[in-house]
Amino acid sequence: MVEDARKALMTIISSVQFLCQQGLAVCGHSVNDSSLTQLLNLRSQDVLELKAWLQRTFYRWLSRDIVNELIKIMSHAGLHELIK
């Protein structure tokens, strides 16, 4: 169960990273029409752990605040690598 959650979370993180690298909007006006949600729905066809994760009714970690925090963490990690 932990491995499935880890795989789903890593897929979410890589999807956020992809959207940011492409310069695309991650969040939309609502959760259902965001680019991230659409991309995750597409990827869930191939990643069964993600599909199960998205069907959860609690703790999906897709809110705007959490996604912005993920982006902030990724940007700090990239900045840290540049400084090194």
The strand count comes to: 0
**Main beta sheet:** none
Structural category: mainly alpha
Rg, rounded, reads 13 Å
The outline comes out as globular
Tell me the count of domains.
1
Description of the molecule:
With 84 residues, the protein is mainly alpha-helical. It has one domain. The protein has four helices and no strands. Helix 1 crosses helix 4. The longest helix is centred in the N-terminal third of the chain and has 20 residues. The model has no long low-confidence stretch (mean pLDDT 89).
SSE layout and pairings?
Layout: H1 2-21, H2 35-43, H3 48-54, H4 64-83
Descriptors:
84 residues; mainly alpha; 4 helices
Summed up:
Helices cover 67% and strands 0% of the residues. The protein is mostly helical.
